[in-house]
Amino acid sequence: MAQRNPSLSALGEFGFIDRVKKQAKSTLTSAVIKGIGDDTAVCRYSTQEHLLLTTDMHVEGVHFQKGMGGEKIGWKALACNISDIAAMGGVPKYALISIGMPSSAHTDFIHNLYKGIQKAARCFNVAIVGGDTVRDSKIVVNVALTGLVAKKHLVLRDGARKGDQIFVTGSLGNSLKRGKHLNFMPRVEEAHYLVKKYKPTAMIDISDGLIADLYHILEESGVGARIEENNIRKAPGATLEQAFYDGEDFELLFTVKKRDAQRLLKTSQPFSFIHIGEITDKKKTCVCVMKNGQEKKLQRRGYTHF
Length: 306
Ligand code: ADP
Ligand code: MG
Known about the structure:
- The chain is an alpha+beta fold.
- The protein folds into two domains: 11-152, CATH 3.30.1330.10; 155-298, Alpha-Beta Complex (Phosphoribosyl-aminoimidazole Synthetase, Chain A, domain 2), CATH 3.90.650.
- 31% of the residues lie in helices and 26% in strands.
- The protein contains nine helices and 13 strands.
- It has helices at residues 8-24, 70-86, 107-123, 175-178, 180-183, 188-197, 210-221, 240-245, 258-266; strands at 32-34, 41-44, 49-59, 91-101, 127-135, 140-150, 165-168, 202-205, 224-228, 252-256, 274-280, 286-289, 295-297.
- The strands form two sheets. It has a seven-stranded mixed β-sheet with strand order 8-10-7-11-9-12-13, with helices on both faces.
- It starts with 7 loop residues before the first helix and ends in a 9-residue tail after the last strand.
- The structure holds adenosine-5'-diphosphate and magnesium ion.
- Magnesium ion binds next to β8.
């Protein structure tokens, strides 16, 4: 009995999602190209493009405190969905905003929350087309976002192969303390540049932490990784441990074929692309070559809800 009904803390966030994925399987149709298990779902749309769908929820006391300011929380609520669309190589399109709040909630806070959402929407050409409003014991914001991606530009998590080179778009770690998690720019432009010029073989945005999100690529692609301590760019004030395991940097983590990597590294780039390592055939194993030359196996851990 206990085994059939483990608590959420025993199952973990990803164990729970795996269960849901199995249950959802019977609902899928041939129009669904990718269901649960990537940054967004991917569905058939037109001869040229696929439809992308994603959603993210932010709960007072878990993801934010009111003292952080409504506008910043609003920006983040939409921006992290935009970041997921970018990680597929897509363009964000239409958003639905749902809010739960107690009757005692200050209208100022909610007004500012919307100001932040609107700011991100205008910045990335997203149209806010609806949502829902309900009473709740605390403030909850849920954003659902659609996007479009040219079929030839779609990048999933499952395409990394041995020899592919691993890159990230920026420095990592300490995002919560630095406030970056509230004011980051989703890497939409970088993603477009990459899909047009270098066709990444796999891509994800770093929300759970570099190593946790790298493991998502390794698992989906059935490969391993070797990264180099010397190549990891730590954000100001961040330790190596934080660069590895802190979440919410919302940088892109991607892989490209070796010859594309050589081209990427030789050419001057309009964006920062940091080469951190390469894909190996040691399935679901990530090692780091430390400064002293020794290899260290990196455990799979990062932020999870349960
Ligand atoms: P991300 O960090 O990129 O936003 P998540 O870790 O939140 O992605 O989710 C991983 C995958 O699991 C996604 O495909 C997401 O749609 C799916 N997922 C998460 N929670 C649920 C749920 N309660 N029901 C169905 N699918 C879910
Ligand atoms: Mg993501």
